[in-house]
Amino acid sequence: MTSVTDVSPARPAFRLTRAFQGLERLIVPALLIAGWEAFARSGMLPPALLPAPSAVLHALGDWVFGFDETTQTYSGHWLRDALASALRVFGGFALASLLGILAGVAIGWSRLFEKTLEPTLQMLRPIPPVSWIPLAIIWFGIADKPAIFLVFLGAFFPVLMNSIHGVKTVDHNLVRAGAMMGANGRQMLTDIVLPAALPSIFAGLRIAVGSAWMLTVTAEMVAVKSGLGYVLWDSYYFLRYDIVLAAMISIGLLGYLSDLGLKAIMARTLHWQQTTTVQGRAG
Amino acid sequence: MAAIELRNIVKVFSDKRRGRDLLTLDNINLDIEANDFVCLLGPSGCGKSTLLNIIAGFEQATSGRTLVDGKQVERPGSDRGVVFQQPTLMPWLTAIDNIAFHLKLKGVAKAERYDRAMEFIDLVGLRGFEHHHPSEMSGGMNQRVGIARALLMNPSVILMDEPFAALDAQTKLEMQEELVAIWQKRRCTIVFVTHSVDEALVLGNKIVVMTRRPGRIREAVNFDLPRPRDITSPEFNDAKRHILALIREESTRLAQAS
Asked: Which residues form the ABC transporter domain (chain B) (predicted)?
């Protein structure tokens, strides 16, 4: 009976810990931003070279809502720029996912594809996507296509590698169990190998969506006249570092949101997978 | 005609790294009658699992013939249900979908699949857990799903490779009792691989004692003690003494040879 009374004094402390848990994630960013703001206002560097967080926020606010035209021609155009970038990222990522999964599963599953296709793809893999820019421009001209192509190059290889790995590491006994239950070759692939490889394929997709956003600036620097990457590079020419930073933040935020979306799809698709991490069960 | 006929089975594994061949099964001859509960008993590495895999069609014998219901075994098939050492369920499927997986592969509609699988859910005592995923169930429950999955195919033989080895002692006892009950109720042929003398004596009505590598059949002991078997009865202990003597004789022979 004493054990019941023993528990109650601990409760308020427990509530405090929980309240603190929400805040603890904010401590490091808050300190960093406060330090940055203080340093920028101290006047050790000209404000044009290191804009204060408040100035960046102001620029971002005007770029999004267009309230006082501090960002001049970009004022109020954020949504259009974000959408332009997002469409390129989505296009390149979708293409990379489709071809990456198809090629990866084929290479992982069949010795024939492994021998014929894989060496070529592995040779193309170390070539930096940026170095394709000259060819991309001759092949696709100046529009969305070369940008999508670059994004595709960045996103394709993570999907490919993880799909190959996922198929190759499918538990041998699951394949035996499938054969025992009478699965034919096609069923073995669609009903056993593919679902078993999904966790690995999703890991590849998450890396790929990050790479896709990473390549937007590179792609939009050269070939197009719109998008977050284009605004970033254009603002650099006018020494508007506040807009440069606002564009960096926007890309980071959209990349983060894409990853969250992908994670949500993954959690729904792989709901059967209850992973136990070192910190306990993860949803 | 016996349900399973093994004729002069020889299996040689070639160890490429060391550049030598390893004789694993040396001229195995065995007839297993329909509705027999046969336990393959032997020490680790004696090739008993290899023999089971050859019957299942997962592995090919180097020479010799394997016949199930008079037909030569060439590949795995649903006429031979296999229960693996680990449950080996599809982790993305629920218990009922795992049990009915064979029907799904055959293109049977969902309602009928579930209808037929429910019978086996009840048989292995998993009612209430049919929509659980393997990750949400214990090892023993998953192994029940594995057994139900093999039974649903209505195979002519069921091959079990130390299916209870990973379970705790109490769950193992329960599962052994249930397996015997299922075997008595459904009258099927079971080949059960084990390294435990007690397990073989609790389950089998024919105990095939195998020798250490290269695997040969030392003796096939018929054991018709009525069930439920009293593991403290004189008959049980007589049989156990006989089998232990066979095994001991074998290790003495090995000790003298070396």
From this structure: 4-237
Tokens found for residue A52 = 């204060």
Fold that domain B2-79+155-257 belongs to in CATH: Rossmann fold (3.40.50)
| A18-27, A169-178, B136-145: segment of lowest average pLDDT | A18-27
pLDDT at residue B150 above 90?
A: yes
Rounded to a whole number, what is the distance in Å from the CA of B233 to chain A's nearest CA? 39
Residues contacting B239, CB < 8 A, separation 6+: B201, B207, B221, B223, B225
Q: What φ, ψ does residue B190 adopt, rounded to 5°?
A: -125, 135
Q: Which of A180, A269, A270, A273 to mutate to test the interface with B (most CBs of B within 10 A)?
A: A180
- Complex-level ipTM: 0.90
Q: What residue ranges define each of the domains in chain A, with the CATH number in brackets?
A: 73-271 (1.10.3720.10)
B60 touches chain A (CB under 8 A): no
Find chain A residues with C-beta within 8 A of B90's C-beta. 174, 177, 192, 195-196
Q: How far is B214 from chain A (nearest CA, A)?
A: 25
Q: What confidence score (pLDDT) does residue A13 get?
A: 58
